[in-house]
Each structure stands twice: as C-alpha cells, then as structure tokens.
Amino acid sequence: ALGQSETLSALSIMNSPRVSDDGISHLRNLKLQRLMLYATPCNDAALQHLANMTSLRTLALTGAGITDQGLEHLKGLKVLRSLYLHATSVSEEGLAALRRELPNLRSTRR
C-alpha cells in the first residue's frame, strides 16, 4: 500500500475530490520530502496528519481549505523550506507566525 512505501520521496495529487482529511492520514508514516496537493478538499484537519512528516522540505496545499489554525500543525516541520498556499484562507499574520517558528521557510500565499 502507498502508506507503507519506504522509498517514495515525492507525491503529487491533483484535482482529486476523493482525497479527504482522513485519507491524508494514510500518508503520515511516509518519509516524503515533497508533498504537492492541488485542488483537493483537504482542510486544517489534514494538517494534523502531516505534523509527523518531519522529512518534508516542500509542501503545496494549493486550493485547499487551509486557515491560520491549520498552520499550527506545521510548526514542528523544521526542515520545511517551501510552502505553497495559493488559493487558501491563510492570512499574512498566520504565515508570519509560522515563519517565526520556521525561520528558513520560504513561502508564497497567493
């Protein structure tokens, strides 16, 4: 199963209305360095499943129902360098709070 792969380092999911917050939980044990979720119905609840993915360097949540509250789950991802939040509800203030915890993070909100 995908959630048990030991060699997968990158995963992109695009335009998939069937990817749910619970579905993302199956990815939490992967050692992904790059996770790209484009136009999925995921929201803040999905991010709690990503909190243990400490090898993530790049994360895209484009078009997801992500808010400032969801970003709290990402504060422990110390190697995260790139975060793409196009078409989300994340505010500049929420992004600034995350950057204080992850000073090497480059991010784009729009």
Q: Element order, helices and strands?
A: EHEHEHEHE
Q: Could you give the distance between the termini?
A: 34 Å
Q: Roughly how many Å is the radius of gyration?
A: 13 Å
Hey, roughly how much beta strand do the residues contain?
15-25%
Low-pLDDT windows of residues: none
What is the share of helical residues? 10-25%
Give a quick account of the main beta sheet: strands, pairing sense, barrel closure: 5 strands, parallel
Spatial order of the strands forming the largest sheet:
1-2-3-4-5
Summed up, the helix count is 4
Structural class: alpha/beta
Shape: globular
Multimer state: single chain
Question: Averaged pLDDT, please?
Answer: 90
Number of strands: 5
Please summarize what this structure is.
With 110 residues, the chain is of the alpha/beta class.
Can you describe what's shown?
Helices cover 23% and strands 17% of the residues. The chain is an alpha/beta fold. Strands 1-2-3-4-5 form a five-stranded parallel β-sheet, with no helix packed on it. The longest helix is centred in the C-terminal third of the chain and has 10 residues, at 92-101. The relative contact order is 0.16.
Output the keywords.
4 helices; alpha/beta; 110 residues; five-stranded parallel β-sheet
Topology (SSEs and partners):
Blueprint: E1 10-14, H1 21-24, E2 34-38, H2 44-50, E3 58-60, H3 68-71, E4 82-84, H4 92-101, E5 106-108
Parallel strand pairs: 1-2, 2-3, 3-4, 4-5
